[in-house]
């Protein structure tokens, strides 16, 4: 009898593992150049692994035990073998908090320094010899088939829910940026045809307002308008690195959260919020002396309120948080207490 029970338990293991993966994964493509790839020095909080956040390995990393285009628990660096924080890290953490029953799958495909031609279908950039395309700089002569292959692998796990994009520093001169919007739109249109992704949200991140390329943000706005579900992710007031192009780890954390807020805004209302009903706290809004008070049924370790562009409006902890009296919009509320998370949208504040 004992051997029979052991056999039944053994046979049940793969079934249990399969059941845990029944829900389709939420897949996101990340492409662009160095500000999407990231590279800022991480801190302990950045390296905390959530087993529900997966990454399709960017390249072969023997030191990390990772093989190109295989799935692993996501941790910095998403676009390399060493240390390095980018917006994708905290985007994924925030989305995992927003959908605590689901798995987030990341497809890193950014290449630092490259012009937009690297991602175009059937095009070889004139700067091809300057940069390496994973995994070995031989398999692909363009990053477009790399993206297509990653999406096809990921579609075995779930559906592509959106695209995170940050590029333009290599195309900021007038001679290049006048055709930049059309080129990026062409990449998206070809992906729709080749991997049947439909009109998924496309999140275009702004470039730094200072330095070389702030004027390119006019074209980032045009790009968002040119796509059926295009959104601009603001880079205003992000913490800047000492060069003219990049952000600090603090900046990338905030940028990732802004990408997540934009994605939540882009999703259909019925799918915007995923809470763990058994353990997550409920909250409500009230008015007091002209201020809006956010109240929870239990104390929270962290509370954040952001607008739909990802800008932080208020943060704190405890059972209540005051939203500034001048704030007038719908906001994204996120809170954490232990391993329980709560995420939701407020009604419009007036």
SSE order and pairing:
Blueprint: H1 2-20, E1 25-32, H2 34-37, E2 53-56, E3 71-73, H3 87-98, E4 104-108, H4 143-154, E5 158-166, H5 174-177, H6 180-195, E6 202-205, H7 217-226, E7 230-233, H8 249-266, E8 283-288, E9 291-307, E10 312-323, E11 331-337, E12 340-345
Keywords:
five-stranded antiparallel beta sheet; disordered N terminus; alpha/beta; seven-stranded mixed beta sheet; 2 domains; Rossmann fold; single chain
Would you mind describing this structure in some detail?
It is built from 8 helices and 12 strands. The strands form 2 sheets. A 7-stranded mixed beta sheet has the order 3-2-4-1-5-6-7, with helices on both faces. Strands 8, 9, 10, 11 and 12 form a 5-stranded antiparallel beta sheet that branches. Residues 1-21 and 272-280 have low confidence and may be disordered. Helix 6 runs parallel beside helix 7 (217-226). The chain is 27% helix and 24% strand. The chain has 2 domains: 21-271, Rossmann fold, CATH 3.40.50.1110; 283-345. With 350 residues, it is an alpha/beta fold.
């Amino acid at each position: 009898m004992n051997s029979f029970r052991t056999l039944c338990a053994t046979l049940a293991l793969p079934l249990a593992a399969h059941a845990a993966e029944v829900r389709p994964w939420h897949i996101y493509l990340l492409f662009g150049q160095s500000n999407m790839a990231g590279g800022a020095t991480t801190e302990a909080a950045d390296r905390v692994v959530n087993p529900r956040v997966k990454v399709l390995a960017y390249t072969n990393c023997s030191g990390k035990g990772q093989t190109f285009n295989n799935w692993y628990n996501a941790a910095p660096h998403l676009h390399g073998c060493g240390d390095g924080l980018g917006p994708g890290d905290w985007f994924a953490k925030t989305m995992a908090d927003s959908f605590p029953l689901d798995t987030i799958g990341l497809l890193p495909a950014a290449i630092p320094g490259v012009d937009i031609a690297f991602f175009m279908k059937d095009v070889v950039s004139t700067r091809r010899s300057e940069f390496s395309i994973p995994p070995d700089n031989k398999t692909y002569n363009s990053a477009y088939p790399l993206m297509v292959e990653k999406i096809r692998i990921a579609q075995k796990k779930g559906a592509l829910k959106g695209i995170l994009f940050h590029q333009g520093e290599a195309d900021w001169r007038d001679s290049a940026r006048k055709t930049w919007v059309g080129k990026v739109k062409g990449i998206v249109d070809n992906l729709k045809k080749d991997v049947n992704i439909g009109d998924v949200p496309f999140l275009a991140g702004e470039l730094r307002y200072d330095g070389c390329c702030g004027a390119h943000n006019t074209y980032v706005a045009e790009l968002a308008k040119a796509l059926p579900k295009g959104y601009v992710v603001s880079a205003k007031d992000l913490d800047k690195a000492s060069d003219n192009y990049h952000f600090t780890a603090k900046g990338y954390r905030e940028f990732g959260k802004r990408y997540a807020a934009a994605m939540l805004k882009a999703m259909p209302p019925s799918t915007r919020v995923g809470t763990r009903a058994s353990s997550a706290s409920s909250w409500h809004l009230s008015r007091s002396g002209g201020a809006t008070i956010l109240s929870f049924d239990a104390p929270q370790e962290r509370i954040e309120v952001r607008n739909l562009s990802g800008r932080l409006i208020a943060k704190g902890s405890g059972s209540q948080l005051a939203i500034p009296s001048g704030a007038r919009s719908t906001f994204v509320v996120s809170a954490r207490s232990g391993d329980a998370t709560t995420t939701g949208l407020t009604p419009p504040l007036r």
